[in-house]
Amino acid sequence: MGSTDVKRRDLIKRAGAAGLVAVPAMSALSACATGGGDGDGKVAKGEKTESNPLGVDKNAPLDFVIFDGGFGTQYGKDAAKVYEKSYGKVKLTATQKIRSVLQPRMVGGNPPDLIDNSGAEQMDAATLIAKDQLAELSPLLDAPSIDDPDTKVRDTLLPGTVEMGQYGDEKVWRLNYAYTVYGQWYSRKLLADNDWEYPKTWDEMLALCAKAKKKGIAGWTYAGQHPYYIPFTLYPFIGKIGGPDVLKSIDNLEPNAWKHDAVKSAFEAYYELAAKGYILKGTPGLDHIQSQTQWTKGKCIFIPNGSWVENEAADTTPADFDMAVGPVTGLDGSDKMPFGTLWAQAGEPFIVPAQARNPAGGMELLRIMLSKKSAQNFSRLVKSLTCVAGATDGMEMSPGLASSSQVLKEAGDNVLNPRIFDWYQTLHKEQIGSVLAELLAGRTKPAEAMDKCQEYADRTAKDDSVKKYRHA
C-alpha cells in the first residue's frame, strides 16, 4: 500500500479485486509453480560471504518492477544504483499496471526478481501464496543489516512489519516498506484561520461540520470511485468505539461480526454526515486525485487517507496548507480506546517471486532499501515513514511527515492493525467498499449496510476456494 498509493489507484476492476488472474490462468500458474526454481538451471547463485550474506551472483542481472504511484520511483532507482556498485545491472520497470504487466510473466514462469506489488492492480498476495508463487523472506530478515552486521534485518524494523508479511504462520512472504499512518487528514491553517478545534467526539465533529457548511465548506470528501479509502478512517473508528477485538472478529470472518454495536454506531455516524449534507457535493463521482485536489483547494475539511497523500497531492497543495493527520474522531466518552488511537502499519508490499532467476539479488536490493541511508532518502523524497526504526531521527521533516511521526509517537501502544484489506482483498475492496459507497452517498441506511457487509463476509467464510486466516 503502500506508497502506497497512487497516482495510485485506478478504478476498481473486478478481476483485480478478485485476485491475481481469472480461474483458467490460475490453473496455469499452479501448474508452473516450482517453489523457487531450484534445479532448472536458471537460478543465479553466488558464494555467501561476510560482505555478500545472501549469496548473490555478482554477474547476474536483476529484474525489478516498481509501482509508479504516489511514492514515485526515484527511491527505487537510488537503491538500484547502490546495488549495482557491488552486483549486476538492474533493469527497472515502472508501471501503474502491476497485474496487467506481470500476469503473463507469472503465468509463463518468467517473473521479475523483485516486485513492488502495489496500487489498484495489486496482485492478491493471499492467492500468490496459496499457489506457491512467492519466495519466503526469512533469509533476508535473518541476514545482517547494512548498518550493523551484528544486528539482523528483522531487528531493525518497526513493530508489526514482520507480521504484515505473515499469513497464518511464522513464514514471511512479503516486506512492507512504507509505514503508513491512516486517519483524518486536514489543513492546520484552515482550522486556525476559522478558529476551529479538531473534533475529538462525534458531537464535536457534527458541530464543526455545521459551522463549516455555513461558510460554504464541506466537512468531508473521499475517493468516491475508490470507496475502499473510506475504511482508512472507518475501521479505526469501529476499533476505537468497541476495542480491537471487534476488528479482529471482522478479520476472522466471525458470524455477526458486522452486527456489533460498535459497527452500528460507526455506520450511523457516517450516515449522518451524508444525511446532513456535510459531504462535498459530487464526491461519489470523484477519484482519489480529484477528491484530494478539492481538499487541498480548501473545499472541505477532512479526507480519509494514508500518509502517502502529502507526496501524491504535492502539486496542488498550497505552500501554507500545513498538512496534518489526526486520529479518527471518537464517538463519545464510552469509547473503549483513547482518542489518540491510530490505524498505522507497514504498507507498500515488496515480493520476490518463487520462480525468480535472481531471488538472492531481489532480497539483497531489499536489504539495501532497509538501510538507514536508503530509508532516509525515501522519507526525504516522498514525505512518508518507512518500516525502518529510527530512520527519520534528526531529519528535517515536511508538515505531513512530521505530523505522522508525532501522532504515531503519541498513540503509543494504541495502534490498530486490521487485516481484512489484505487477507480478503475481494471482500474489502469490491464488496465492503461498494456497501460503504452507498452508505456515504445516503442511498443505503446503516442497518441495511450492516446486513449487506455480513452477507458478503459470510459468503467469503463459506467459500472453500478462499484460503482463510485468523488472528492468534
From TrEMBL:
Keyword flag Signal: yes
| Any matching Pfam family | SBP_bac_1
Keyword presence, Transport: yes
Which residues lie in Basic and acidic residues bias regions?
A: 39-50
Question: What keywords is this UniProt entry annotated with?
Answer: Signal, Transport
Return the annotated region ranges for Disordered: 36-55
Q: What is this protein called?
A: N-acetylglucosamine/diacetylchitobiose ABC transporter substrate-binding protein
Instruction: Record the organism.
Output: Streptomyces glaucosporus
What would be the name of the gene that encodes this protein? ngcE
